[in-house]
Specification:
By secondary structure, the protein is of the alpha/beta class. 38% of the residues lie in helices and 16% in strands. It folds into 2 domains: 95 residues, no CATH class; 278 residues, Rossmann fold (3-Layer(aba) Sandwich). A 7-stranded mixed beta sheet has the order 10-11-9-12-8-13-14, with helices on both faces. Helix 2 packs parallel to helix 10 and helix 3 crosses helix 14. It is globular and about 60 Å long. The structure holds adenosine-5'-triphosphate (ATP) and magnesium ion (MG). The site of magnesium ion has 4 residues, from helix 3.
Length: 378
């Protein structure tokens, strides 16, 4: 039968009946349980619940069944009897399985232990020298695909729209910030740090009030340069970017997944760290690992704060993510930010080279990122 992964929404064939232990998503490799739900034929589903895609028309079975019950009750017509579908039936929405919930619980315990072992020091009174002129926010988490680039690009765009002179720094060899903004700068962060390009050449005006220091493959050379330094390599980025403070109010750094010399450099440059946490076990586990690395670096940079935790991929139709979102809010009442809901418009916008505010300004994604930007700016 066909199933939709509750995490990445990939449609795929799963055995029917699904194994008791759940199945592994062919796309994102997370585990989920698939169960067949009673459905009504697509032709009986109200038209407004059909999803039209270039490759066909799909209904949303679980929602259709519920909506039909409500609609038919209101119209006082006999309720259609839902019938099980055959193998060619449209996909069913799935729920995280018990193993996923156990893994999430274990990851949350690890985070609790981290908080207990390394409580963050009380904020120190800022001195004129310690506080940079511009706010420097690193969007980081070593786990991949949690929404770092989506968050960095749309947060930077929202801050620029709010009148802040904003610099978006792409510290990822994937260089996807330029793609998401629909621009193709010839030089970027690597060339600026290596002294090949001046700030005027390297800062690409991407939008009104928003400049981009592009990432990309050239950053591989920069990493080699950093690791070859005898001493002070961890401050390479900070030394090169500090003069840009005079040009902007906020710097947002989009970091790469994983942990390497450039990640450490970013932590020696920024003063605030914003962590997007996808609401599933693997991401929470990555977050608990990241907390250890963060604690190790912050011993050398007491001004560094884990200032914002942003739950991403919130899907209220699935029980697990909403519960994890509440858990995170309990663990970090001061740092938790408004969550970003799963919204397909957010995944479509980069292909158009537009921010969510340009591509779908009335979408839930645009509303969520506007709320996040207000929270961060405020
Ligand atoms: N809230 C959301 N709803 C739906 N899709 C999303 C959402 N946030 C991000 N995406 C999509 O999920 C994918 C991964 O997001 P993104 O590239 O921002 O993650 P990342 O953490 O930067 O990944 P990487 O670690 O590889 O740099 C992208 O295709 C993006 O469009
Ligand atoms: Mg990214």
């Amino acid at each position: 039968m066909l199933a939709i992964c509750p995490f990445c929404r990939a449609r795929q064939d799963v055995p029917d009946p699904a194994p008791a232990g759940g199945v592994t998503c062919a796309s994102c490799h997370r585990r989920f349980a698939a169960r067949r739900v009673a459905q009504v034929p697509a032709e009986e589903a109200p038209a407004w619940l059909r999803i039209e895609r270039p490759h066909g028309v799909f209904d949303r079975p679980a929602v259709v069944a519920r909506q039909i019950a409500v609609a038919t009750a209101a119209a006082s017509v006999p309720e259609p009897v839902p019938e099980p579908r055959d193998a060619a039936a449209p996909p069913v929405l799935a729920e995280p399985d018990a193993a996923e919930e156990r893994a999430a619980a274990a990851a949350l315990s690890a985070i609790r232990r981290q908080i207990a072992a390394a409580p963050e020091p009380a904020p120190r009174p800022a001195t004129a020298q310690a506080v940079p002129a511009a706010r420097r926010i690193g969007v980081m988490l070593s786990k991949g695909g949690v929404g770092k680039t989506t968050t960095a690009v749309n947060l930077a765009a929202a801050l620029a729209m709010a009148g802040r002179r904003t610099l978006l720094v792409d510290a990822d060899t994937q260089g996807q910030a330029a793609y998401a903004l629909g621009v193709s700068p010839k030089v970027g962060l690597a060339e600026l740090v290596e002294g090949i390009a001046s700030p005027d050449e390297a800062l690409f005006p991407a939008r009104e009030g928003l400049w981009l220091l592009a990432g990309g493959k050239a950053l591989a050379g920069l990493k080699r340069l950093i690791t070859r330094k005898d001493f002070g390599g961890e401050r390479t980025l900070a030394d090169a970017l500090a003069p840009l403070d005079a040009r902007c109010d906020v710097v947002v750094v989009d970091c790469a997944p994983g942990w390497d010399a450039l990640s450490v450099n970013v932590l020696f440059y920024v003063t605030e760290v914003l962590v997007p946490v996808a609401l599933e076990a693997m991401s929470l586990q990555g977050f608990s690992e990241f907390l250890q690395s963060f604690a190790a670096v912050s011993r050398y940079r007491p001004e560094l704060t884990l200032s914002h935790i942003v739950p991403t991929f919130l899907d209220k139709r699935v029980r697990g993510p909403a519960a994890l979102c509440d858990e995170l809010a309990t663990l970090y009442p001061e740092r938790i930010c408004p969550p970003i809901r799963y919204n397909v418009k957010l995944s479509e916008a980069p292909a158009e080279g537009r921010t969510i505010f340009e591509y779908a300004p009335r979408s839930p994604g645009a509303r969520d990122y506007a709320a996040l930007a207000r929270h961060v700016a405020g």
